[in-house]
Amino acid sequence: YPLFQLGGPQLRIFRPNFFMLAVRPGVPQPEDTVQFRVSMEMTKVDIKNYLEKIYNVPVAAVRTRIQYGANNKRNHKNQRVKKPDYKVAYVQLGQGQTFQFPNLFPEKEQDAETRSFDDFKDKYMESEKQRQKGDPRRGGVPDWFGL
Amino acid sequence: MAAAVAMAALCRRLTGALRLGSAAAGLRGLTQNLFHKNLTKAEPLHQLKFLHTTLSRKGLEEFFDDPRNWGEKTVKSGDAWNIKQLRGKSSEDLHKLWYVLLKEKNMLLTLEQESKRQHRPMPSPERLEKVQKSMKNIDLVVREREIALRLLQTGHEKPVPGEWRHDFLGRTYWYSYKEWPIPWYLNKKYKKRKFYYLPHVNHFIRLRLEKSLCRRARRKNLEKTRQKVLERKFPHLAVKSQSQ
């Protein structure tokens, strides 16, 4: 970005490439708070302007923190694999609005293909279980015991 | 990243103009077909009321897909935007398209994260790649236009002037000038950087050159041997040179 000095022009970005995604909060948050994962370079002011100008959402307050991604998992070459860092923003909506994170995977009625596949799978599992069971005359006693 | 006032005005015009189906050329049907060209399910724009209505309730719903698509296994989407198609669009159209694609990308990323959280497969993940490709293409087209304008107005191709410099390892690279509040002879960090190399580096430059030449020769020979193998296997498909 160009250098800013006192009295200089305000920085304007005409095609921002910053992403912002809404996440379901792990810890229950108050009604008006929405949790986002934002690009690491965004500031609180940036997030406020982004939401207000692009999404037309009134924002009262923004708090951010950076989540460190762990670096202690190892791959098949015993090299450390880093999980990426990300910035989390807690945005409180203005004008008394509330937000509940919706359920994006509601139960939908399956089509004929999946239903038939599920039936086939259930039948197969039942037949397998029947084969695994021992002689019914032994009354559930395993074969390990003699006689 | 303070958004421009012009951008805000554009956004407001976007909501108003598109709903009203204004006479601006090519804006009809732009809302639905903007992020997916050749969308199979084009929602008809018959809400041609003369009231100004916002696109969706306070906008937080734009982080999520159409509620009818929640829980589906696949969501149909068209192809990504081509560079040739984008070159025909005006700058205003490209600007609006950029924001539509940005919102779509945010929506898809939200969906991806939520599907990871719920341990479910994300419906149609190829949409993300399409959106990223479209955004890259828009960037390229805008850059091309900027370069053309700059060449006409100033005669310079690059936005920032620069020059070829050596680094301390003998490599040559394009150094673009940076903006500093103080001149270079007062800049301690800059003075520590060395844009020259000492004579003992010449040996390593020669080795590097030899390595690159070796690699190039190896690649060429590999190509030649592969061609020979193919010609031996399929002699009837050999390219007959013009013999006259």
UniProtKB/TrEMBL annotation, chain A:
One of its GO terms (molecular function) is structural constituent of ribosome. Residues 106-140 have a biased composition (Basic and acidic residues). The keyword S-adenosyl-L-methionine does not apply. It holds the Pfam family Ribosomal_L23. GO terms for cellular component: mitochondrial large ribosomal subunit. GO terms for biological process: mitochondrial translation. The keyword Ion transport does not apply. It comes from the Eukaryota. Belongs to the universal ribosomal protein uL23 family. This is Large ribosomal subunit protein uL23m. It comes from Rissa tridactyla.
UniProtKB/TrEMBL annotation, chain B:
GO terms for cellular component: mitochondrial large ribosomal subunit. InterPro entries: MRP-L47_sf (IPR038340), Ribosomal_uL29_mit (IPR010729). It holds the Pfam family MRP-L47. Residues 1-17 form the signal peptide. It is found in: Mitochondrion. Keywords: Mitochondrion, Ribonucleoprotein, Ribosomal protein, Signal. GO terms for molecular function: structural constituent of ribosome. Its main location: mitochondrion. The keyword Ribosomal protein applies. One of its GO terms (biological process) is mitochondrial translation. Belongs to the universal ribosomal protein uL29 family. This is Large ribosomal subunit protein uL29m. It comes from Rissa tridactyla (Black-legged kittiwake).
